[in-house]
Specification:
Length: 75
């Protein structure tokens, strides 16, 4: 899942080397913490959050095979 998130985000940003995806697993949830360069934050979020929502939709769809609830936080 980390590779999927990185693959989606890399073409959107000016500093792809600053992309970090950390994973926090709990009992029935998995949280992916995506961090990018501050100047790329607007590109990842998009107007009215549309890009972020699209990224989350793809990640959630890819994670439906898991028994856990998936969250994506962008920082």
């Amino acid at each position: 899942m980390k590779k999927l998130i990185e693959t989606i985000v890399k073409p959107l940003v000016d500093f792809p080397e600053d992309i970090r995806v950390n994973v926090q697993e709990e009992d029935n949830t998995v949280t992916y913490l995506l961090s990018v360069n501050k100047s790329d934050m607007g590109k990842v979020i998009g107007k009215q959050g549309r890009v972020a929502k699209a990224i989350r939709t793809v990640v959630y769809a890819a994670g439906t095979s898991q028994e856990k609830k998936i969250f994506l936080e962008i920082k």
